[in-house]
Design goal:
single chain; mainly alpha; two-stranded antiparallel sheet; globular
Length: 557
């Protein structure tokens, strides 16, 4: 009995010590997060630095300090886990990207975004995979064909988080829209490709396997998007019918947050792409659900989603910076430094080549479909798009850990080489390319003052890339169809609207024509059922009354 009591007491003491160490680690990590925010604020006007680089540098510096204090035993407060990244940190970032997306510009350039984000990522994936096979097959690192394809998917994933901190959506809205949209679709495509590679036996590749791989890719892409749309519409319908705001705005906010996260988890439950699902759920919720809640809930949810996304971004870069100096991985590769350097440098070159292989050709193809010069992607903008997508981040890190390690570290030489090489590419691309991106953008593209002069001097700039990305208002029909001067006029909801005068209009301005018919369908069928701006039920004295009044005032104009 005494022996048993002593054992229980010893176990309790061990657990208590472990809990206290966890408290210390979390306290230090939260302190570092606060430091990143403060230092990032102080460096707000700095020409070179941004908050992602600041967090990465602080993470690496903290790792060095911990490494010295522990006598070379450890460099991190928390162990990197792909589950932590994909389940807890990535969803709020991607959802907020969809929720805050300036839909007008995003869907205006949707075809180009899909061209870059899906087809471009596929081209990059093929080039990096083939390059890895050619460069590494003679090395004694024991990789199978599935590993090489996984490497292609890992390094095809650009870092949309860091890229969005580089460009200004006010100064370069077209460029921001393309890089932002491509970044989200790229991440989703890379993860879908990675999962597709994992689900097939690639030891014997033939035409049937290749077709199944392509079919699985499109299945995941389409079903993930539809799941996000359905979840967003469900949240809009529930909130519109029940109108939680009559009793509690807290319930409105809670149901929006929970249903947005539910969309991501449903995608993971059914082995779909959570990134695509939660992104399109965010777009749908901002279009319908957000307008069905009270004014207080609108302000609260908008800032809550933005804050969660911001903290998650800083957390990720701090996390990656600290994990970069994990001594266990570097100790394994220390016996073959030349091989490690060769692998890292080869991967970096493949990233550069793979990016260039689709940005410039696909930009050329996209420009062929544009009638007006202001709609085309200039060569300087193409260089900026190519450069902005060279950075690699936490998505690449998480996929690399998933492929080459299941426990956060590895003792196998080949796996350790590729994990450390991934870390090297992430650090080098984020810090070096990230530091050079701001000056490069300022050198290649005109400043905001120059843009203002261009706007005032160009009478045909109404539909150019200076059109604001956001704003609750929709495109006017004049913006959609006035370029040929042949748009007919009609009346819809009390407002003067135009419509395509012929099939030729559909062929010459497909994006605007599709937008026109979508608006008719949205106003006639979707908004009366799911709510949205101008179609929420009129409840006297409620915060939604203002939305109805605004819409009615617009209709009279």
């Amino acid at each position: 009995m005494g022996f048993g009591s002593a054992t229980m007491l010893e176990t309790a003491n061990t657990l208590s010590t472990s809990d206290h160490l966890s408290v210390i680690s979390i306290t230090l990590f939260v302190t570092l997060l606060c430091a990143c925010i403060v230092i990032g604020h102080l460096l707000e006007e700095n020409r070179w630095m941004n908050e992602s680089i600041t967090a990465l540098v602080i993470g690496v510096s903290t790792g060095v300090v911990i490494l010295l204090i522990s006598g070379g035993q450890s460099s991190r407060l928390l162990v990197f886990s792909e589950d932590l990244f994909f389940i807890y940190l990535l969803p709020p970032i991607i959802f907020n990207a969809g929720f805050q997306v300036k839909k007008k510009q995003f869907f205006r350039n949707f075809s180009t975004i899909i061209l870059f984000g899906a087809l471009g990522t596929l081209i990059s994936f093929i080039i990096i995979s083939l390059g890895a096979i050619a460069a590494f097959r003679n090395l004694d690192i024991g990789l199978a064909i599935g590993d090489y394809l996984a490497i292609g998917a890992i390094f095809a994933a650009t870092d949309s988080v860091c890229t969005l901190q580089v460009l200004s959506q006010d100064e370069t809205p077209l460029l921001y829209s393309l890089v932002f949209g491509e970044g989200v679709v790229n991440d989703a495509t890379s993860v879908v490709l990675f999962n597709a590679v994992q689900n097939f036996d690639l030891s014997h590749i033939n035409t049937a396997v290749a077709l199944k791989l392509v079919g699985n890719f499109f299945y995941l892409f389409i079903t993930s998007t539809l799941l996000g749309v359905v979840t967003g519409l469900l949240s809009a319908y529930v909130i519109k019918k029940l109108y939680f705001g009559r009793h509690s705005t807290d319930r409105e906010v809670a149901i929006m947050i929970l249903m947005s996260y539910l969309s991501y988890m449903l995608a993971e439950l059914f082995y779909l792409s959570g990134i695509l699902t939660v992104f399109f759920c965010g777009i749908v919720m901002s279009h319908y659900t957000w307008h069905n809640v009270t004014e207080n809930s609108r302000v609260t949810t908008k800032h809550t989603f933005a804050t969660l996304s911001f903290v998650a971004e800083i957390f990720i870069f701090l996390y990656v910076g600290m994990d970069a100096l994990d001594i266990e991985k570097w100790r394994v590769v220390s016996s073959s430094p030349k091989t490690s350097v060769f692998v890292s440098s080869s991967l970096l070159v493949l990233v550069l080549v793979g990016r260039a292989a689709f940005v410039f050709p696909l930009s050329f193809l996209s420009n062929l479909t544009k009638k007006h010069q202001h709609e085309k992607i200039s060569f300087k903008q193409q260089i900026t798009i190519w450069w902005a997508g060279l950075m690699r981040g936490a998505v690449s890190m998480a996929l690399a850990y998933n492929q080459f390690s299941k426990t956060g570290h590895t003792q196998e030489r080949g796996n350790a080489i590729f994990i450390t090489s991934t870390i090297t590419v992430v650090l080098f691309s984020t810090v070096v390319f990230g530091l050079m991106t701001k000056p490069l953008v300022r050198y290649l593209l005109p400043s905001s003052k120059q843009l203002s002069r261009m706007i005032s001097s160009d009478s045909n700039a109404a539909n150019s890339f200076i059109v604001p990305l956001l704003g609750e208002g929709q495109d006017s029909i004049a913006e959609l169809f006035n370029e040929n001067g042949r748009a007919t006029e009609a009346r819809e909801g009390g407002r003067s609207v135009g419509r395509p005068s012929s099939l030729r209009m559909l062929l010459t301005t497909p994006t605007r024509t599709v937008h026109y018919y979508w608006r008719k369908f949205d106003n006639a069928f979707m908004r009366p059922v799911f709510g949205g701006r101008g179609f929420v039920p009129y409840v006297p004295g409620s915060p939604t009354e203002q939305s109805v009044r605004d819409y009615q005032e617009e209709a009279k104009q």
